[in-house]
Amino acid sequence: MSTGSPVLPPATATTNNNLFAAVDIGTNSFKLTVVRVDPSSGRFLTFNRLKEPVILGLDTTTTSSAPTISAASLDRAITAIRKFQHFIHSHRLPPSHLRLVATSAVREASNKSQFIGAVNEALGLNVEVISGEEEARLIYLGILQFFPVFTSTVLTIDIGGGSTEFTVGLNGNVLFSKSLRLGHVTLTQQFSDVTKMREHIRNELEASDLIGKINDFKIDAVIGSSGTIRAIEKAVCKGYARKIEENVGVFEEFTKREWRFTRHELRCLVERLYDEESEINGTAKRSRFFKKRAAFILAGTVLLDEVFEKLAIEEIEVSEYALGEGVITEMLGHAFQGFNLNANARWRSVFKLALRFNNKKRMKAATMCATIAREIFEGLMKSNQLYNGNDDNQLCVPLDDSDLEYLDAASLLHNIGMSTGKKGYHKQSYFVIMNGDELQAYSKEEIKIIALLVRHHRKKFPKNDVLEGSSKEVRQKFRILCAIMRVSYAVQQCIPVNFQFMGFIHSPEGFKLVLSEGEARNQSTDIVHPLLAGDINVLLEKEFEHFSMVVKQKLSILVT
After folding, report:
1. Number of H helices and number of E strands within the chain?
2. Whole-angstrom distance, CA of residue 352 vs CA of residue 346
């Protein structure tokens, strides 16, 4: 078993109060979700996700009434959480902004107290073991941050490794919740025969009285979450059931996510997976597509198929957010007075559009662009407040929270056009935003501003008449936001380093963007912008000159 003293952050390190994190200790995998929060609005953007396939269920899903977590599983668990802890400390996350929750595998284990104590002793972290009903409630809170369904009566379904959570919610309140001991790991281990697996699932559903309870409500929408249901949606989207996944590399670039699937599509996928059991190389194909989830995906789809049948579900929407985001949402409610669960309807539509067209790699690039842009924006605002009354150091027009929202949205959406190819993708991104009717609760002028920021984040600079018909103040703000976004995109493209710290400071020489690689990287001497070579120099210099012309102050960059 892993031992050792807790890894604490350096005493001199300042904390990053805008970062919050949650660790989901699940039956199949452990997941760390880190978000960056805008304190003024409560909007949050996923900063990073880490996942470790611990598979506690290998040792807890036994036929005995009191399963036990083995020493080997405990060792894997501590190793995984230690990795998360190193990441969290490297980004200076305040201890009060972290919460670890354990679900089915630990909840059902006879030695859960030993598990909690071992993690605390080795890492100095407290693990909360939450009930199935509490897990369902938190999942519902997470889904509310992804879908604008606050005023709708929704049924949420979350299939985990050791249990499945059902919730009926309305206006942020849970009307009904139920946790059943049906999970894709437990079912895989208990049943090799699909017919017997189906019979067991039906018996559990009927014995729980779940069907009758849910049928008492008029359900407006059914929403699924977590890895199994997202994997099913991806398989449907990529045409796995139609056997076109051999071209998955091509489809990865040109297929947009719909974040929903029908009962018929689910049934086709179940039949395909079932047929693979008797095909030569069938399971090999499954492993290539579903990767580490391949061993459990058949059980997950069969389980969902039975739920669809019993509840007469014809279509399910799929949420990218689940338990981790729900835990974070609850932390935000405690941290920020007046936090509104429904305040993020506009932002959710932006995030959903980005996820619809972007794969993980492009999403990470967009998030980094947004992070750099926000740092510059906030630095400019602080400088404007500091030099209030000094015209030489002030912007020509003050920026506000609405401008930051436009910048965040444009940064997150700037590369969605790459789903059809890299050439001219900024124009395609602009077209999707302007014509897709995807951004909810934004005015036509706001959508146009976001779209134009995306259109002009690269290549040609915008012309003076780009927002003709708008007020002078709107046009001036647009020029500043565009300059910020172009610099952010150039930095993200030209300096391929995973920066842990950023800063945007003002000095007598002008503004300086400071990027630090952190302790995990080689501690080299400071590398200043002019030392960067070749085409990197050309692109950054061009954007820095443009920024300086708009803001009327010099900009430089320092990489440490």
Report:
1. 21, 15
2. 10
Per residue in 4-15, pLDDT (tens digit) is 433 333 333 456
What's the rounded Cα separation, in Å, for the pair 528 and 558?
A: 5
The candidate with the shortest Cα–Cα distance to 374, out of 487, 473, 466, is: 487
Place of tokens 């995030």: 351
Contacts of 178 (CB under 8 A, 6+ apart): 132, 133, 136, 165, 166, 167, 208, 210, 213
pTM as predicted: 0.80
Spatial distance between the Cα atoms of 447 and 440, rounded to a whole number of angstroms: 10
Share of the chain above pLDDT 70, in %: 86
Cβ neighbour number for residue 158 with a 10 Å cutoff: 29
Q: Round to whole Å and give the CA distance between 186 and 303.
A: 11
Q: Which of 142, 165, 61 is nearest to 109 (CA)?
A: 61
Strands 555-559 and 527-528: antiparallel
Buried b (16+ CB within 10 A) or exposed e, 501-540: bbebebeeebbbbbbbbeeeeeeeeeeebeebeeebeebb
Tell me the pairing of strands 19-25 and 98-102: parallel
